[in-house]
Amino acid sequence: MFHQAFKCSKNIGLLTITIAALIGIYFPSRHARHYECVNIDNILGSLHLESVESNIQNNNLKNCTYETVLFDPNNKIQIKEVIQQRVYSEPTSGGEYIPKDCKPSISSAIIVPYRNREEQLEIFLHFIHHFLQRQKIHYRIYIVNQKNDLPFNRAKLLNIGAKIAMSDTFPCLILHDLDLIPLNYANIYACSKLPRHMSSSLDTFRYNLPYLTLFGGATSILSTQYKGINGMSNLFEGWGGEDDDFYK
């Protein structure tokens, strides 16, 4: 489950939305309530376990295990808890963290397209470092900043981040919007053997997909797969479309 946070009033534009559009979006029967998902008993078997061995130098540690974080009955996070102060270890200056008490089997690059959202970025980073460290994974966060006034090109920013992450030999890419906060520690930030839509249960959509092929928000994909399809299209400027094209 995910919480879509940080909407500001000037971006909502409710006055421009017609009654018909609201009914079309929120009428219950429109939502894709049933879609293919991984059964909870098969989660571990579906994960792609691969780490960046060159970054993990202490080979004397026992391997990290993931059963605890996946099956802990206290995994859920309340929305009101998102902005609470949380304890986590300071990552490196490059946004990288490696567990110190065990050897991780998961190495993920979290790639976040960004522009002019400083307060949101602070909240996101404060929360996500705590969240990821609880999962006992090796990760690095890449904030890809568009520093101009041209239309926002989310896909191009994700491509840039993916290219850098792959040069750092990360096997798993998590393509992540800044305004999404995970609400369950069991939503492990790892890749599965097939690309995975990680934000299929979003609070603003009443935890249902608006349409079955929605593939934006937060998505995991293996670096080899991302390279195999030549990444996302750079042609989508402004809001929307690139994730539907990516799905196809």
The whole-angstrom Rg is: 18 Å
Overall mean confidence score, pLDDT = 86
Q: What percent of residues are in strands?
A: 5-15%
Measured distance between first and last alpha carbons: 24 Å
**Category by helix and strand content:** alpha/beta
Shape: globular
Low-confidence blocks of residues: 6-17
How many helices? The count is 8
SSE arrangement, N to C = EHHHHEEHEHEEEEHH
Give the beta-strand count. Answer: 8
Query: Strand count, sense and closure of the main sheet?
Result: 6 strands, mixed
Share of residues in helices: 25-40%
The largest beta-sheet arranges its strands as 2-4-3-5-8-7
Provide structural commentary.
The protein is of the alpha/beta class. It contains 8 helices and 8 strands, in the order βααααββαβαββββαα. The strands form 2 sheets. It has a 6-stranded mixed beta sheet, with helices on both faces. The longest helix has 17 residues, at 118-134. 30% of the residues are buried. Mean pLDDT is 86; it is low at 6-17.
